[in-house]
């Protein structure tokens, strides 16, 4: 009887604790709405006006300029390809410097992690805006912004994946007298390749979207044409580009998922 009553008390305490957590989250959300002065009901009432504006100004989509968009579409995809490729190479080097498994120098690891955190915590649009002042409007801005932002994300992801690799496997090679490079190429890299592929493909998906957004700040690609059409009130042409962008993203996700299955 005492055991059963003790279990009931524990269950009640867990339920009470869970309720208090949910109430705390709800209180934070309500406070956020109040602080931001967001009126949910006004937003809901505004939806009919938005749909009316969309239906009367954007539809139907105008694909008559599609041949002129093809180079911009290719440009956007190539941004993601080149940005992801160079980031993946650089991020692997930084990942090795950040990991305890491959870098015994603590202060070097800390310094590199601080540098990567700096890169990672600045949004890609901020990087693009800063680089515009250096290189002007053009493809170089978009490419460098993508590489910098992706490098910060991938280096952290690679380092965490390297740290998760069982130390005992690397220790066995060290105990057998293997050199640093033998441990790297025969112990670490074979174990790391699946994580490398998954993180790199995931970054490529993100970069397809980011490439289009970068275009809106003058970095080239399909985004700059979307921004131009909206500013010139050419909504029908803008909608056609938005549809193309959505199809690009969906196609990228499909191809990346097939690649993951193929690799597995």
From TrEMBL:
Q: Where are the transmembrane segments?
A: 19-36, 69-98, 110-135, 141-159, 208-226, 238-256
Domain of life assignment: Bacteria
UniProt membrane topology term? Multi-pass membrane protein
Has UniProt tagged this entry with the keyword Transcription regulation? no
SUPFAM superfamilies, sorted: MetI-like
Q: Per UniProt, which keywords does this protein have? A: Cell membrane, Membrane, Transmembrane, Transmembrane helix, Transport
Where can this protein be found? Cell membrane
InterPro entries in the cross-refs: MetI-like, MetI-like_sf, PhnE/PtxC
Q: Which GO terms describe its molecular function?
A: ABC-type phosphonate transporter activity
Q: Does the keyword Cell membrane apply?
A: yes
Q: Ranges for the ABC transmembrane type-1 domain?
A: 73-256
**What PROSITE patterns does this protein's entry cite?**
ABC_TM1
Task: List cellular component terms (GO).
Answer: plasma membrane
Q: Which Pfam families match?
A: BPD_transp_1
Family according to the record:
Belongs to the binding-protein-dependent transport system permease family.
PANTHER family, per this entry? ABC TRANSPORT SYSTEM PERMEASE PROTEIN P69 (PTHR30043:SF1), PHOSPHONATES TRANSPORT SYSTEM PERMEASE PROTEIN (PTHR30043)
Protein name in UniProt: Phosphonate ABC transporter, permease PhnE
Species of provenance: Enterococcus pallens ATCC BAA-351
Q: Which taxonomic lineage does the organism of this UniProt entry have?
A: Bacteria, Bacillati, Bacillota, Bacilli, Lactobacillales
């Amino acid at each position: 009887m005492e055991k059963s009553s003790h279990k009931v008390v524990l269950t009640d305490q867990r339920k009470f604790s869970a309720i208090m957590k949910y109430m705390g989250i709800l209180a934070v959300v309500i406070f956020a709405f109040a602080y931001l002065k967001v009126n949910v009901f006004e937003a809901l009432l505004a939806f009919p006006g938005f749909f009316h504006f969309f239906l009367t100004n954007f539809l139907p989509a105008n694909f008559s300029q599609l041949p002129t968009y093809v180079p911009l579409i290719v440009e956007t995809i190539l941004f993601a390809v080149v940005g992801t490729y160079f980031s993946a190479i650089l991020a692997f080097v930084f990942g090795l410097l950040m990991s305890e498994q491959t870098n015994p120098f603590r202060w070097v690891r800390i310094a590199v992690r601080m540098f990567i955190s700096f890169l990672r915590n600045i949004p890609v649009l901020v990087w693009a805006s800063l680089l515009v002042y250096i290189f002007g409007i053009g493809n170089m801005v978009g490419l460098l912004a993508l590489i910098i932002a992706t490098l910060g994300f991938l280096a952290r992801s690679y380092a965490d994946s390297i740290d998760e690799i069982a130390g005992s496997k690397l220790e066995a090679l060290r105990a057998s007298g293997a050199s640093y490079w033998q441990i790297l190429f025969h112990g670490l890299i074979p174990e790391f390749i699946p994580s490398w592929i998954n993180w790199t493909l995931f970054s490529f998906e993100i970069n397809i979207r980011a490439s289009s957004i970068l275009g809106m700040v003058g970095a080239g690609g399909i985004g700059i044409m979307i921004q131009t059409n909206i500013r010139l009130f050419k909504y029908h042409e803008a909608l056609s580009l938005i549809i193309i962008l959505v199809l690009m993203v969906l196609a990228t996700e499909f191809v990346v998922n097939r690649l993951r299955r193929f690799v597995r």
